[in-house]
Design brief:
The structure holds 2 protein chains of 2 kinds. Chain A is of the alpha/beta class. Chain A contains 11 helices and 13 strands. Chain A folds into 2 domains: 213 residues, P-loop containing nucleotide triphosphate hydrolases (Rossmann fold, 3-Layer(aba) Sandwich); 60 residues, Alpha-Beta Plaits. Helices cover 35% and strands 30% of the residues of chain A. Chain B contains 13 helices and 30 strands. The chains are: A alpha/beta, B alpha+beta.
Chain lengths: 302, 627
């Protein structure tokens, strides 16, 4: 089990009568870049806070690096780096003060690495934090999270609220960091295309429940759009085919969205009176949308 | 811990500096006379202290939470306890610095005991009676309680404003709770027993002068109690919420907690037994409006009214009887009496021609049941300073009248000098001005005389008014400039025997003797600044010898009757003579059924009975026995 970095079993967390996370099971292996996907309010941040020991589970078990975050928080945090959604730093400090202040919490601190990263990101050590742009603040937060060479890096919706260019730069920084180190990374986001670039494996959480946890490629392959030609104009037969979530189009052509598409689906479509014209691969984002949409509809939200 | 302390200090430095700046500002303002006169230490200390407690406490957690930096700290490998401790320590030390600076500032400036003239009749315990450290300590503890409440509220609320509001309310509730229920800190005023409890009191054999020293045991007990309260608050909060990192108490529990506290505060003190014994007078008699002073001679009480003397038979305390009334002219406003042999001489004001003037009316009381006016004299009829007060700077302030043998001594303050007037009462009871001894000369600012504000004038008179304590053939005067001993001849002639300057006469606060106590051949001068008692051996009046100076701020006067303390609010409080600084054992309610009725004189305590003027009555109370 030594290669399991994060293990979550039946994690449930209530806030009053609200159930934020409901029976979540998740395992993240060592060296993985793990994409943690979900819409806003899906329970991502609650889960991450419990990983950091900031929240106690109402029930269930959370283990990070083999430790219980709720009881071994101090030891654990020596080994975790964390970049929050909108990193808020002490605006009155200078960059070097911020680094020095942070470093004093940790038993070991890699000054050389920090200096390299600061240099790489073009952060001036004498600059006050309040004078940094948002992108630079985010980069500084990343540097601070990396300074103690964490075994696990947790990024909670990084780059949210940054403009396109800055976000691109910041994501590049993350990619650099991840590639250099080859450490375990938990990347939470609702911006799915960001995750797509880096994640080996993704989990989707919705309404506090885990919908899927797969390798990225497998996940992307789960859902396909299939263009079919109907032998007659009656599409009612299509609805009976397993995995069909949406039917678009009119006349004798229909674009059918199917989860878990495989050859058996082709046969099923044929039996429903539809011939497959061609099959379209979908991006991670589209896969995510297709996966989450039914749940969103159930809530009356689109 | 150290990076946290560094951060907290850097973040709070400007707040602490602002607090110190406010203190400095107050200090500068206090250099201005007008401000200094109306400077209310209690109010300022409370305002500055609780504002600082609020400002330092409100931001600690809620500020970081609203700025989003709290998570930054929480994900560092350190315990929440350390984060909170660093925050608490820095704020608490900052508060201590501000409180200490405030009282350093108060002590650093010559502090003038300046009750407004209209309140001057009431003797107030003064600041100078209290050691500085005790003062800082006594103020710091309650402010730390407020600070802690705001601090805790800050960890329960989402932003600083909420924390300040909730914490302020809970803090005040906690204070009220402590004050009213636990009696741990009985009040904000510096003259309350929290200060007195901190100091050890020792009477001299006359029960007159008291030396006090800081009471170490009490200080330690108080500190432990305060630490316990604060600790209990934290533990309670901890238990209430599980852990601080999830400390989200929410508004509803806060409101409910506040409501419960208010309810407790309102109800619990009422449920506690009231230990003060309220006693109604055993006898009283109406003497007339405007009773000013009274003397108890034998079984007769002589009550001085504005323009008359009323004789009361007090031989039967339960059946007081008005014997007779002697009237002087109706334009008199008599205010004080002194007894010289078989004459009672009353000093006061007369709206006389050509100008208002002070004078003395002597009553022959050889037959106490049929007194008559034996003579009248005006004191300063030959003055011509253009002052409508006929020499009295106040316009109408009669300071006092004392008797040395057959000579009456009246201190007088004019617009350019203070003087002692001697009035000889001859064998037939006729008073004659025999001598005027000039004690100090000065120049008043023009505007004091040009202005019509009589309170401003009265305040200047207060500065130069002096205390006269009669001896056998001498009088001891406590002046601005120190102790003056005056020889009073049988003929009424005055001669200055000695003058012991205690300070700079121009700096009226520097040597100002506020109280003089004469005991056999010893005289104690309580000087105002620096605050100390100076004890003189006056066996040779021409060469008084300063024996010792009791250390500043370690001395205090105590009420004249050991065991009983007169309070202006219509009660005589009974104190345990062994522990007079403690809370009163019981109190006599003097004001009878109408709480607004005023006590008009210091009570005279004699033979287990207390005699006091209340409004238009002379009332007699039975004193409970001292245990």
């Amino acid at each position: 089990m030594s290669d399991v970095v994060i293990q979550i079993d039946g994690f449930t967390r209530h806030f009053g009568s609200t159930i934020a996370v409901d029976g979540l099971d998740l395992t993240v292996g060592q060296g993985q870049v793990f994409g943690f996907l979900g819409r806003n309010g899906a329970g991502k941040t609650t889960t991450i806070k419990s990983l950091l020991g900031l929240l106690r589970p109402t029930s269930g078990m959370v283990r990070v690096l083999g430790l219980d975050p709720a009881t071994d928080g101090v030891e654990l945090k020596q080994r975790i780096g964390y970049v929050p959604e909108t990193p808020q730093l002490y605006s009155w400090m200078r960059v070097h003060e911020m680094v020095r202040f942070t470093s004093q919490f940790y038993a070991c601190w890699n000054d050389a690495h920090v200096a390299t990263l600061l240099d790489q990101f073009g952060l001036d050590a004498e600059c006050r934090v309040k004078n940094l742009s948002r992108g630079m603040s985010a980069q500084l937060a990343l540097v601070l999270a990396m300074g103690h060479d964490p075994e696990l890096l947790i990024l909670d919706e990084p780059a949210t609220g940054l403009d396109v260019l800055v976000r691109r730069d910041f994501l590049e920084s993350i990619v650099q960091v991840i590639q250099q180190q080859g450490r375990t990374v938990l990347l939470s986001s609702h911006m799915v295309h960001e995750v797509e670039r880096v994640a080996d494996r993704v989990a989707v959480i919705e309404g506090g429940k885990l919908l899927v946890c797969q390798d990225t490629d497998a996940f992307k392959g789960r859902v396909k759009k299939v263009l079919v030609r109907l032998s007659n104009d009656d599409e009612s037969g299509l609805k009976g085919v397993a995995g069909v979530s949406e039917i678009e189009g009119s006349g004798d052509r229909r674009l059918v969205t199917i989860s878990n598409y495989d050859e058996s689906c082709r046969q099923a479509l044929h039996e429903a009176g539809a011939e497959v014209v061609y099959v379209v691969d979908m991006s991670l984002e589209e896969s995510f949308i297709e996966l989450v949409r039914p749940h969103a509809r159930r809530e009356g939200v689109r | 811990m150290s990076p946290l302390l560094w951060k907290e200090f850097r973040e709070n430095a400007y707040k602490i500096a602002t607090g110190l700046g406010v203190v400095l500002l107050v200090h500068i303002l206090r250099q201005m006379d007008e401000f200094n006169r109306s400077f209310d230490l209690n109010a300022w200390a409370l305002v500055i202290g609780s504002l600082c407690a609020g400002v330092l406490g409100m931001d600690v957690i809620a500020g970081e939470r609203s700025r989003g930096t709290l998570d930054f700290l929480l994900v560092r490998p350190t315990t929440v306890a350390r984060i909170l401790a660093a925050k608490f320590i820095v704020g608490a030390l900052g508060l201590l610095a501000i409180v200490a600076a405030f009282w350093v500032m108060v002590y650093a400036t010559p502090f003038v005991e300046n009750p407004p003239p209209w309140a001057g009749a009431y003797k107030l315990q003064t600041l100078i009676d209290v050691p500085w450290v005790a003062m800082v300590y006594a103020w710091y503890l309650p402010l730390v309680v407020i600070y802690t409440c705001v601090f805790l509220a800050s960890s329960a609320t989402e932003n600083s404003a909420e924390a300040a509001g909730a914490g302020g309310i809970i803090g005040l509730m906690a204070m009220l709770f402590i004050v009213l229920v636990v009696q741990f800190y009985p009040g904000f005023a510096y003259d309350r027993s929290i200060i007195k409890d901190l100091i050890k009191v020792a009477f001299d054999d006359k029960g007159e002068l008291v030396r006090i020293a800081t009471h170490g045991g009490t200080v330690i007990r108080r500190s432990i109690l305060a630490a316990g309260l604060i600790g209990a608050g934290f533990i309670g909060a901890w238990l209430l919420t599980g852990r601080f990192r999830e400390f989200t108490l929410g508004r509803r529990p806060l409101v409910i907690t506040g409501f419960l506290l208010v309810t407790l505060v309102m109800t619990v003190p009422r449920l506690l037994p009231d230990k003060t014994e309220k006693i109604l007078p055993i006898g009283s008699v109406r003497v007339g409006e405007r009773a000013r002073d009274f003397k108890l001679i034998g079984d007769r009480a002589f009550v001085l009214l504005d323009d008359s003397l009323v004789v009361i038979d007090v031989s039967l305390p339960t059946a007081l009887r008005s014997v007779t009334t002697v009237r002087a002219d109706a334009d008199w406003s008599l205010s004080r009496m002194a007894q010289s042999g078989s004459y009672l001489c009353a000093g006061g004001w007369r709206e006389a021609i050509p100008a208002d003037s002070a004078g003395v009316v002597c009553f022959d009381i050889t037959d106490p049941d049929a007194p008559h006016i034996s003579g009248v004299t005006m004191l300063v009829s030959d003055y011509d300073h253009g002052d409508p007060g006929g020499g009295y700077a106040s316009g109408r302030q009669f300071i006092s009248i004392e008797a040395v043998g057959a000579t009456l001594l009246v201190p007088n303050v004019t617009e350019n000098q203070s003087e002692l007037i001697s009035v000889r009462v001859d064998d037939t009871g006729r008073p004659t001005v025999t001598d005027v001894l000039v004690l100090e000369t000065y120049e008043y600012p023009e505007e004091v005389w040009a202005g019509t504000n009589r309170y401003v004038r009265a305040a200047y008179v207060q500065r130069h008014a002096f205390v006269v304590v009669p001896g056998e053939d001498q009088a001891y005067l406590g002046l601005r400039s120190g102790l003056v001993i005056v020889q009073v001849d049988a003929s009424g002639a005055l001669r200055e025997l000695s003058r012991d300057s205690l300070g700079d006469a121009e700096d009226f606060a520097s040597g100002y003797a506020r109280a003089v106590v004469a005991r056999q051949d010893r005289v104690f001068i309580r000087r105002l600044w620096p605050s100390e008692y100076v004890e003189f051996d006056v066996s040779d009046g021409a060469h008084p010898r300063q024996i010792r100076t009791l250390h500043p701020r370690t001395t205090v006067t105590w009420p004249r009757q050991a065991g009983y303390m007169y309070r202006s609010r219509g009660t005589i409080q009974l104190h345990d003579p062994a522990q007079p600084h403690r809370r009163p054992v019981s109190a006599l309610g003097l004001a009878r059924d109408n709480p607004r009725r005023g006590v008009r004189s210091k009570p005279i305590l004699r033979d287990g009975l207390g005699y006091v003027l209340i409004d238009d009555e002379l009332a007699i109370f039975e004193l409970p026995p001292l245990e």
